[in-house]
Fold this protein.
Amino acid sequence: MNPDSPTASDELVYSYRFASVVERDRVRLAASVTAPEKTAADGTFFNGRLAHPRETAALLLALSHIVRTHFFDARPPQMDPIVTTSRTLMRWEGFSGCCGAYARLDLDDAALRTDVRGFGTTNVDFNPKMLSHLGGIGRQDDVGLSVSTDAVEVRSGSRKVKEKKVTLPRRWLKGLCEVQVYQSRLTLRHRFSPGAIVSLLQSASRATGGVQYLAVAGGKPRLTLRPSAGTVAIGGASRLSALRPLLPLAREVSLYEDEESGVHAWLAELPWARFWLVLSPTLQRGFSGEGQVLGSLARGRWEDDFDAVQDLLAGPPGASPAETIDPAEIAARLGIPSSDARDALDALATSGLAGFDAHRGYYFQRPLPFELARLEKDQPRLRSAKKLFEAGQTRVVRREGDATFDVEVTSGDVTYFVRLRPEGDRCSCPWFSRHQGQRGPCKHVLAARMAVAPPPTDS
């Protein structure tokens, strides 16, 4: 299998020590390898009960439905959402089978009655028995929730210990990286009552795969085929059907937009939880192939700061890791420019180690066990650009100040002309002509950025 293929799997194999199992009063989720801050004697790094069992079960089912759905490209889905626990919340994340829809459920402290809690991330198993049980949970049921690294299921009679192994797809890692970049650019456009968007979802279910535009009149949204002042581009509107099970639970639904890319996001808010649905610009595009973070990686300066940023976020020995991440604070504490701090965070995100919460406006940690060496391996455009740069195939032909450059980049028998500008980079290659920078920079722009970047400082 081509290692750069969207269907290629990550080399790190998760090994489940036990299968997800439904006990009389508890849902136990099979957990893979984690790096928890604290665990109980039996290896449990979260144990507690659901304060709102029926509603939480419905939210988890909604997320599971998205993860199991192919909105466009019917590839085998990764049906095991990622769960992260911290001091103040539990966060569930996953992508649709086509990787064009990202779902995240944040459960606040008010949603959980906690006995044991550590800081860590794992994959969890949503098998059919689990889904059936979640669907049967009632409002008055007393439901416990635990995630453990070393628990074992013992079946009476057969005494079978079931171990399940799964792989985390490389496209999920790349998707986690890309979606946090888009989320950091989102701006709030509209707030709606849940009832106000019922008719919108009905019309969206009949939509084709093209781009439509959301307009608001009298507080009610509707889809139109033509853009106008104040409209929001909605690509692949049929995917809005994923919001339907959230409407009876939410007190408010908000629409966010990244106007430049066409990414849009919906946030359903409960008093104790938030559910994000982030959608790619069109039905045919998945987040894993976007390349929005490549510009940060090409500059190279993040390599000087990466370890220091990781140490700062981990905190001193025995202390709790930083839960929220402010690039300005990191820059001030390390004495580096804010842009370099953001580049280091983008590098963390490229390995799935950081995400962005657009509602609260901060980065958060997601401690997946991956190595820095994976960054270049998982970015073929970055690898190609580095080869061009190291082979001396770049030539700066014009420079104005520290931000305006014209660079010639030779690839094969063809020399391309790259314009690096504060308002946006351009390249004469066919790939850039086709995508106009919407899928991230081409390898020639990346090579040009390497050519004009200041050399890294000695450590």
